Amino acid sequence: MHDPASTRYDNPALYRACGRSGLKLPRISLGLWHNFGDTDDPANRRALILRAFDLGITHFDLANNYGPPPGSAERNFGHVLHTDLAAHRDELIISSKAGYLMWDGPYGEWGSRKNLLASLDQSLKRLQLDYVDIFYSHRPDPATPLEETMGALAHAVRAGKALYVGLSNYNPEQTTRAAQILRELGTPCLIHQPKYHMFERTPEQGLLTVLAKEGIGCIPFCPLAQGLLTNRYLAGIPADSRAAHDPRFLKPEHITEAKVAQIRQLNALAQARSQSLAQMALAWVLRQPAVTTALIGASRVSQIEDNLGALKNLKFTTEELSAIDRILG
Ligand SMILES: NC(=O)c1ccc[n+]([C@@H]2O[C@H](COP(=O)([O-])OP(=O)(O)OC[C@H]3O[C@@H](n4cnc5c(N)ncnc54)[C@H](OP(=O)(O)O)[C@@H]3O)[C@@H](O)[C@H]2O)c1
User: Fold this and answer.
1) 69 inside domain
2) Whose CA is nearest to atom 45 of ligand 1?
3) CATH of the domain at 175
4) Do the domain assignments include residue 1?
5) Is 217 exposed, middle or buried (0-12, 13-18, 19+ CB in 10 A)?
6) Number of domains the chain is built from
7) Confidence bin at 247 (pLDDT 50/70/90)
8) Which of 32, 295, 301 to mutate to test the pocket of ligand 1 (most atoms within 8 A of CB)?
9) How far apart are the CA of 151 and the centre of ligand 1, in A?
10) CA neighbor of 47 nearest in space, from 35, 38, 39
11) pLDDT (tens digit per residue) in 114-135
C-alpha cells in the first residue's frame, strides 16, 4: 500500500468547481491514453499515478479502449488502485468513456444504449470498481437518437455505476441538445472533453460559450498537442518520444519544419515569461474561464512536476496573447 504525501492537499488553489456543480477538480488532470498499456513499463506506470496523487492530482481519465491493447490501461490502473490506493478511493475522481471501437459486431462502438451500458460494465470489471465518478459518451453517434445515448448515461447514474456524466467531441449544437435532454432526465451534464490547444482552437468558435452558458465544466484533452507544445521536438525527434516510439496518432510527418519554427518561437515567448513551453501551453488553455482543468498525458514523472508549475503563472498580457496569435498565424 502506498503511503501518500501528507502535503498533497496543501494547495487549495489547485482545485476548482467543475461548471455549476459541487465537484472540484484539480486544474491539471492526468490521462492514461498513452504510457499505461501492457507494452509500457509497469514500474513507470505506477510511479506516474502515485506521483500525480502525491502532488494533489485527484483526477485520472480513462476510456474503455486505452492501451494498447484496448482495455489494458483500465486494467493496469485498477491494479495500482487496488494495490496502492485502495484506502483512498474517496479521494479520487476516475472517469471512463465508451463510443470508439471496442469489440467486434454491431454493439462494440458508437452511442447505442447497448454499447454504452455493456462497455461500462466491462470497464468496471477491468478497473475493479463498483462505480466510476464520470462516465462519458466518447463521441456523438449520427445514427443513434441523442435521447437514447443520453438515456444510457442517465441510466448509468441511476444504476449507481457512475456519479456524473460527460460528453466528448460533441459540437456546440449537439452539446446544447444533449445538455437539455440530460437536464430533463435529472442527470445534468457535468463536463465536456474537447480537443483544445494552441494548434487546435475550434472550441473557441462556440463550444466554450455554450459550456459557460450551460454551466458545464471543460476539460481540454491534448493541451500539449501530444508533446508538440513542449521542449520535446525543438531539435529533432528524440528516440524516447511519442512520435518515435508510439506514432499511432502523433506521426513524425506531423513534425514539419514550419511547425518546429512555430514551436521555437513559442518556446522563446515562454522563456520570456520564465516558464517552460509546456507550462505556457497549459496556462494558455487554463486562461479560458470555461476551462476547469487541463487533461495532460505524461511519459515520466518529471513532466507531471513541470506541468504543475504552470499554475504559478496563469496570467497573460494582451501583448503576449497577440504575440501567440501572430506566431500561430
Ligand atoms: N476524449 C478524447 O477523444 C481524447 C482523445 C485523446 C486524448 N484524450 C485524453 O487526453 C489525455 C492527454 O492526451 P495526451 O497524452 O495527448 O496529452 P498532452 O498533454 O497533449 O501530451 C502528452 C505528452 O506530451 C509530452 N509531455 C508532457 N508534459 C511534458 C513536459 N512537461 N515536457 C516535455 N514533454 C512533455 C509527453 O510526450 P512523450 O511521451 O514524448 O514524453 C506526453 O506523453 C489522454 O490521456 C486522454 O485521457 C481524450
Assistant:
1) yes
2) 31
3) 3.20.20.100
4) no
5) buried
6) 1
7) confident
8) 295
9) 31
10) 35
11) 999 999 999 999 999 999 999 9
